[in-house]
């Protein structure tokens, strides 16, 4: 069932991002990456800059971490930390090509005064597979994050965790198949958008039970990384193609304001708006 059009209220957010100055596709660790195809770090940086500036224009705070040579995927900051109520759970990557990113983000948090910080023992690709709904942490598994990391996240962050199994390798992280439109409050439940076919049958049932008012996306929405969106409760940043697929129109009918951006170069590495955006929740 699609959501009803109700007044939507944006809330200021704080994000951590990493400029893609060393962006490249030198290896393939997901189905979207093709090292034989040309990519442009200049174009990727321009698209990233527009994303960052859009957040600031919408009233959000954006902090930046310094990119490092030899880590072309460091731009995808969402994969390197999960922050809820000021508690930080770092990342541990499955792919060796990205492993060093976790330490750079750990240092950033330490240098910026975060004392309640834990580095995981289990493989955990952070907000790539963790989505905070305001009440529970949705946790993906199947391709990257270990199932055991879900229990670890619950212990470290002190919030209830709901496990969801991903079954389509194109949607290897939870944030490629689901995103939170509105977090739960005392007055209203959370609302999400998701692509059902990316999940196992049991996980689909869980999502229907938890979010009967969800925005249910199509295969076309998912294929353009439309589910890799970022919402502040009213404004929803989406890939430009989501206008064509109809996802943006659906969200408009639900009272949201779509904001379309070109992220086509970043998508060559399997990323979109959310992949580039770690949310810091104090």
From TrEMBL:
Tell me the InterPro entries matching this sequence: DDAH-like
Q: State whether keyword NADP applies.
A: no
Q: Membrane spanning segments where?
A: none
GO BP annotations of the record are:
arginine metabolic process; citrulline metabolic process; positive regulation of nitric oxide biosynthetic process
> Catalytic positions?
173 (proton donor), 275 (nucleophile)
Coiled-coil ranges from the UniProt annotation: none
Among NCBIfam families, the record links this protein to: DiMArgaseDdahMtb
This protein's name? N-dimethylarginine dimethylaminohydrolase
Species annotation? Amycolatopsis jiangsuensis
């Amino acid at each position: 069932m699609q959501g009803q059009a109700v007044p939507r209220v944006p809330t200021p957010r704080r994000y951590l991002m990493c400029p893609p100055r060393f962006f490249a596709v030198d290896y393939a660790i997901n189905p979207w990456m093709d090292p034989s195809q040309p990519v442009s770090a200049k174009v990727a940086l321009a698209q990233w800059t527009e994303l960052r500036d859009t957040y600031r224009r919408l009233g959000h705070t954006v902090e930046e971490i310094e990119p490092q040579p030899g880590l072309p995927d460091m731009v995808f900051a969402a994969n390197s930390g999960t922050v809820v109520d000021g508690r930080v759970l770092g990342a541990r990557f499955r792919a060796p090509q990205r492993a060093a990113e976790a330490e750079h983000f750990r240092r950033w948090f330490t240098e910026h005064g975060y004392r309640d910080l834990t580095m995981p023992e289990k493989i955990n690709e952070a907000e790539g597979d963790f989505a905070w709904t305001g009440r529970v942490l949705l946790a993906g598994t199947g391709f990257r994050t270990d199932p055991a990391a879900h229990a670890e996240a619950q212990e470290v962050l002190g919030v209830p965790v709901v496990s969801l199994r991903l079954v389509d390798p194109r949607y290897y992280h939870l944030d490629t198949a689901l995103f939170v439109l509105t977090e739960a409050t005392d007055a209203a439940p959370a609302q999400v958008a998701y692509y059902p076919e990316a999940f196992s049958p049991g996980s689909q049932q869980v999502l229907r039970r938890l979010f009967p008012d969800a925005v249910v996306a199509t295969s076309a929405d998912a294929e353009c990384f439309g589910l890799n969106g970022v919402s502040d409760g009213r404004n929803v940043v989406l890939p430009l193609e989501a206008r064509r697929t109809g996802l943006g129109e659906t969200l408009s009918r639900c009272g949201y304001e779509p904001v379309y951006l070109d992220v086509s170069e970043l998508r060559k590495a399997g990323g979109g708006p959310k992949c580039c955006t770690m949310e810091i929740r104090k």
